[in-house]
Amino acid sequence: GQNIDQPTEMTATEGAIVQINCTYQTSGFNGLFWYQQHAGEAPTFLSYNVLDGLEEKGRFSSFLSRSKGYSYLLLKELQMKDSASYLCAVRDNNDMRFGAGTRLTVKP
Amino acid sequence: DSGVTQTPKHLITATGQRVTLRCSPRSGDLSVYWYQQSLDQGLQFLIQYYNGEERAKGNILERFSAQQFPDLHSELNLSSLELGDSALYFCASSVGGGPSTEAFFGQGTRLTVV
């Protein structure tokens, strides 16, 4: 089976840094994705990790440790528009499973 | 605008009925993915087609089927509808068929089964 766990909700302050963790169990790991989804809108792709380490893309970075079944999404210099749900998803050979999402609220 | 077009935007139908959801991928994209998002189940991957062939399969019910046509548009057919099938159905497309390919989502079709 494949379990993907991430916190349900997080709150952070504008301008701060927040880290959203994701742990997973998989039988055939083939990559981990992070998506952002604003309420009522479609998900948008943020990052993809298949090798261990940190991938940086502007204010967003994603880290993966395959041996630990662990990833995190790091958001720097938070802006109000970053308030959204963040979905962790794991590609397992021919399937793709999503976590329930972390709802991030950015406060002034 | 992601460039992925889904029709219709909203659909209301009765239990036991059959519906077809349509997706036009971005120009040049060969892969189409279908997802279901409901409040209690979250976002679930249903199926992926690449250049007309099924590439990956997720938690898709037997009552559901999909296909990708030669012009690369795709249809998701949902039959013998149940109340629990009420959800937002997303289509996404990407250039390649591999797992690392960035996919772009359409705005979704909201299906309500009454």
Order of helix and strand elements from N to C terminus of chain B: EEEEEEEEEEE
The main pleated sheet of chain A reads as: 6 strands, mixed
The coarse silhouette of chain A is: globular
Q: From the helix content, strand content and strand pairing of chain A, which structural class follows?
A: mainly beta
Oligomer: heterodimer
Would you count the extended β strands of chain B for me? 11
- Indicate the radius of gyration of chain A in whole angstroms: 13 Å
Q: Helix count of chain B?
A: 0
Which percent range describes the beta-strand content of chain B? Answer: over 45%
- Tell me the total number of β-strands of chain A: 11
Distance separating the two termini of chain A: 41 Å
Count of DSSP H/I helices of chain A: 0
Shape, principal axes of CA atoms of chain B: globular
Q: What is the CA-atom radius of gyration of chain B, in angstroms?
A: 13 Å
Class based on secondary structure composition and strand pairing of chain B: mainly beta
The major sheet of chain B is characterized as: 7 strands, mixed
Topology:
The complex is a heterodimer of chains A (108) and B (114).
Chain A: E1 4-5, E2 9-13, E3 18-24, E4 29-37, E5 44-49, E6 53-57, E7 60-65, E8 70-75, E9 84-92, E10 95-98, E11 102-107
Parallel strand pairs in A: 2-11
Antiparallel strand pairs in A: 1-3, 3-8, 4-5, 4-9, 6-7, 7-8, 9-10, 9-11
Chain B: E1 5-7, E2 10-13, E3 19-24, E4 31-38, E5 42-50, E6 53-57, E7 64-68, E8 74-78, E9 87-94, E10 104-105, E11 109-113
Parallel strand pairs in B: 2-11
Antiparallel strand pairs in B: 1-3, 3-8, 4-5, 4-9, 5-6, 7-8, 9-10, 9-11
